[in-house]
Write a structure and sequence with these properties.
Blueprint (H helix, E strand, L loop, with lengths): L9 H30 L1 E2 L2 E2 L4 H24 L9 H26 L10 H11 L6 H14 L4 H8 L7
Antiparallel strand pairs: 1-2
Helix pairs in contact: 1-2, 1-3, 1-4, 2-3, 3-4, 3-5
Length: 169
Amino acid sequence: VIRQGPQFDARRLQAAVVAAQMAGAMRDVFQRSLQYANERQQFGRAIGKFQAIQHQLAVMSEHVFAARMAAQLGCSGDGIEPDRLRVAVAKARCSEAALVVTELAHAIHGAIGFTEEYDLQLFTRRLHAWRLTAGSEAYWQALAGQALMSHEGMTLDLIRRITDVEALA
């Protein structure tokens, strides 16, 4: 049962769900890119053997797994409502990562990634749309910035509170 009232924030709940969707979609985009790089042959060897492609895959994996962790943190809180600041960080991080991940995926796949017959474009188009759903990264970064500015005490204490993995267990 979802409460309706002054304390309930539908945008926050939607942003947490969208962040989780984005993290899952980015993981799939990464896996497809990795598989494509290992299968696609150029100059007699898989393109995944080229240093430039390996670098792109490494950068992509950093963003994918950072977004995954941020989404996990963003979905945590007391009861059904996730913590507002955790959601802000999760949605902002996932939206930022989506831009980099989609760019790199299309760089690795080349023109085939944009074709209607190839499923990569289904994920990347949705990731771009989800970047704006429930507030863009700028909206959530502003919210996080306000929380940081109004926080009394050490900033590190606030960061520790929202990234406390022990609280997730």
